[in-house]
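Sharing a chain and its predicted structure for anyone who wants a worked example. Both blocks are below, sequence first, tokens second.
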Amino acid sequence: MSGKQQRGAGGIKAIFATAILLLIGYALFQIAPAYMDNYWIQDAMVSEARTAAVSHKNEDEVREVIWKVVKDREVHATPPIQREHIRVEYSGREVNISLKYTVVVDLFVYKFSLNFTPNKGDRPII
């Protein structure tokens, strides 16, 4: 045995560090899905904006494609996203698609809102 006594401070630090890492992991687990949903919606908007004018889709057809992505991803917006919230506007050969929604994240001790406004305006690919 050594002449020094061990006081167990390293064990307390390890428990504290593990608790912090678990809290960060939980927060990311709650927040990441909202950002992933936004990414998929934005991706669908980019794709549709580039091809809508070329394929001669009307506003309702474009809106339906974006709505399908919102429903497939099961976006938990507050209030829930409605088909009418997806704005599609044609301006000459340009197509502008936009949507505003809010996702409330509950971390037990703290609630906060993430506001998303995915939009895309693009000219056709031809």
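Comments welcome. The longest helix spans residues 9-51.
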